[in-house]
Amino acid sequence: MVKSTSDSKTGRNPKTPHRLFLTELKERSLWFVRLRWGIPPAILCAAGAAVLLGYRFHTVAVLAIAVFILAYNLFFWRWSKWREPSAWKDSARVQDFIYWQLGLDYGAILLLIHFTGGIDSPVLFFCVFHILFAASLLPRLSAYGFASVAVGGVVLISLGEYWGWIPYYPLVIDADPMIPSSFLQLMLDLFFFAATLLITAFLSTTIMRVFYRRGQQLADKSETLAAYNARFDALFSLIKAIGSIRHLDQVLEIVTHDLAMVMKIKAISVKLLSEDGVNLTYKGSFGLPPDFVKTRVVAVAKSPLNQRIIEGEPFVRGDLSRHEMFQFGEDLTAARIQSVLFVPLIVEERIIGVLSAYCALPDRFSAEDVEFFRLAAGLVAIGIENSRSYEAIERFTTERSRFMLRVAHNLRAPLAAVLSMLELLREQHLGSLNENQAEYLRRVDRRTRTMLDMINELLTLSTSRTIKEKPEKKPLEIGWLAGRLERTFQDEAAEHQIDFFIRVDDGLPPLLGNSEQIEQLLENLVSNAIKYTPTGGRVDVIFASASRNMIAITIKDTGIGIPEADMPRLFTEFFRAANAREKEELGTGLGLAIVKEIVETHQGRITVDSRPGQGTTFVVTLPTAESPEP
After folding, report:
1. Which end of the chain has fewer CB atoms surrounding its CB within 10 Å, N or C?
2. What residues contact 228, with CB distance under 8 A and at least 6 apart?
3. Is 319 in contact with 333 (CB distance < 8 Å)?
4. What is the pTM of this model?
């Protein structure tokens, strides 16, 4: 189940701005601790400079305050180290940490003010900084609270010193104490100090309120942009799934999961319509109980919301509190689903099913959700149709291969028997033959052998397509392959008076392949090259490096070539080029189809370049034993 704390209308999380500022709050609170390490040395330096300039003050008290600041800062540092990680995720606890720091800082500042001249103390200006800190990191009234504390503390110290309630520690230079000349001057000093702090609090809180509002707006827009980006990513994932995954179950598993995640809802389902339009069957789902969707069939007539979709409505939103709208409303309620969204799956203006979204929140789906879901439904419908077409083609191809395999098996044994009988006749074991009879027997034998070759090649092709296991591959030395080719075809080439050359470049690594299939591939290509090259021609076989992990095998001849019009169908089963049929009447038309099948099985590639009357060049590129096998 995908839980969501997002707003039921927009899908956005209202706490996101708070989360964004919580990290900053934590960093600033720790920054105060780091900054405060420099305060005691700064007080010592300031005290030393004041003494050098001739000022006299309560030095012991000032140094004691510096030690006090160092002590409570050490406490805060240890406190930050001992806090559990979960404590930093609670803004109230982090704010308490800041309150304690600012409160103790104000206590230290008021003590410094008292021991360095009261209302005439230069430390008064430091009261401003903490108001700015409070305004930027704490609730709005906190700045006014700390301003009031500072004003109240300074007023009490100043009046207490003026009326003699507490000792007065003036800043003395050249034996003249710096004290207010009159009560009126004292009141004016206090008034302007209070006004300065309160105005600072007002301005800082006003500015921070604007910054916070702008930050909140920016956070909302950023989250909205992130949500749109996530949805675009989901659509892109759907497109990739449609383009790369062929089987319907796998496509539906991916799209239902991704849509539920990006929409932050409980569940997604895909229901496909029966051919008669009467029932909807669950074909894929995410988030729904397995028992609910397993073999579950929805009668369109008993589910008004589904019926409205089938009848042509672009979308339907529903509330599960109205059980009469759902055939299985009680089951959905038991699954804690409160709202649904249905959109049609349409292919070429034909409804093939319903894409459904389910959420545990009432009234969850907004207009933006509907538009996104309808767009996703269009892609899902395309994926379903593509998968159905691919699976139909796959079934047809499998059945065709099995049929070819059965036919080939059934024909091979009788043809082999016919050849044996013809051999007996030709050898005249059953009686002598005249010249005319012998010629006819040779023709029959030739035709029969061609049929047997075709059947054998059909068996090879059908077996490779029917049996899905990968062929056993092992390193094959290039020199060994070249030697096998030379021994197989040198006599045939000499018989046709054709120059036959094989060249192997130095330092080639072994090929990675099935020896039987690689030999069959090369024999088909070289046999064709010799067969369709006139007397006096030339056939070259070259083994060379194509790249770091690939070897190129080039079979080049000076034969009759291939017409340009026949090139697109060259690797098609039972196809023979027109000029090939004129030169050699008999042929199966399966050799190049087998060649292509073997090349693809070995993750290689094959190219052909040919000109009629000028020859043909095939280049087969295959991986070496050093290549990582996919």
Report:
1. C
2. none
3. no
4. 0.43
